[in-house]
Amino acid sequence: MAANRIEILQQFVDANPNDCFSRYGIAQEYVKQEDYEKALEQFNKIFEINADYQAAYYHAGRALEKLGRAADAGETYRKGIEVAARSGDLHARSELETALEELKA
Predict the structure, then answer these.
(1) Selecting from 1.50.40.10, 3.40.50.1370, 2.40.30.60, 1.25.40.10, what CATH number does the domain 2-104 have?
(2) Model confidence, pTM
(3) With 0-12 CB in 10 A as exposed, 13-18 as middle and 19+ as buried, what is 15?
């Protein structure tokens, strides 16, 4: 079923390569499959298209942690905190700060 969702979402991306929402959906499907490398490909493309796409930072950081890339995860959380601060999203900022603190522990 997940592969089918990825295929459907990929059709949206094929029609509009700058569709961050559909790319985010694909990344989340890969996370569910524990295919963190493929998820990161989508998260990184999202950041190229729209560095202010807030939702992707937390999940990209978690995927990096799963891959044992703690330093990269920390950098991703820090960038996400900056984006959340600029946008005034206190909830997202708090989640990212907590993730960063847990990473340091």
Answers:
(1) 1.25.40.10
(2) 0.91
(3) exposed
